[in-house]
Amino acid sequence: MLLSKSCVYGIQAAIYVAAQGGKDYVPISQIAEHLNISFHFLTKVLQQFTQAGIMLSYRGPKGGVSLSKPASQYTLHDLIGAIDGTSIFTECMLGLPGCGHDEPCPVHEHWVELRLKFTSVAKKTTLSSLASKANELNVRLAHFSVAAEKS
Fold first, then answer.
1. Low-confidence ranges of the chain (pLDDT < 70)
2. Within the chain, what is the greatest distance between any pair of CA atoms?
3. Which of 36, 50, 54, 98 could tie 142 with a disulfide, CB 3.0–4.6 Å?
4. Cα(first)–Cα(last) distance of the chain, in Å?
5. Which class is domain 5-142?
6. CB distance 16 to 34 below 8 Å
7. Which of 21, 131, 26 is nearest to 75 (CA)?
8. pLDDT tens digits, residue range 89-113?
9. What pTM was estimated for this model as a whole?
């Protein structure tokens, strides 16, 4: 997996929040339940988004998290950068310092092509487009459906 579990969960949660319309605060407990993610783990992940200024958090009975700007102003690149950093978009797949055209690693020619395409997709893909797909296509965000588990 290229992205950490924290990053994947963060992206899933951001899509979930954006799919709710992004106007009100969404309780973290609701996000955790719908996405089948540990509440405590998700809270730590979402703190990274609040520290990066992507989300706002509010404590109290009507508390939760919301996006700090419209979902159309955030890209997948922003979300990944806030949690995993941006090194995935620039560094060697094997983590070798100085890897490049002059001193390539064994997978350099393949990785650089994929990395550039991945970077392009991440910069073009907005959170609002992902939320729209989640709503329109009823695509799943969690590893398994909580409703199916309760049946």
1. 1, 22, 137-151
2. 58
3. 36
4. 31
5. mainly alpha
6. yes
7. 131
8. 999 989 899 888 889 999 999 999 9
9. 0.86
